[in-house]
Amino acid sequence: MPRLKKCPDCGGKMEPGNTEFLIESEQGLIAIEDVDADICTICGAEYLPAKSNEYIEKTVEKIFTKKIAPHQETVFRVVAEA
Length: 82
Ligand SMILES: [Zn+2]
Description:
With about 80 residues, the chain is α+β, with helices and mostly antiparallel strands. It has one helix and four strands, in the order βββαβ.
């Protein structure tokens, strides 16, 4: 998906920014931080470009296979312990 210039929800201007992506795991609720996203300046809707989805997929796999631990790399943290 190309970068969005206009918000599909409200038509507002989209700006590149960072968000966090929450997933459930056996370690608890995990936030993958600093995910590249297009964020609406009007309504705050967040859309992830394709490369962010790939990044999340790879990171989730590393977390689930325990190749990385929270704060080992600054990519994710445990929000709530399981
Ligand atoms: Zn919007």
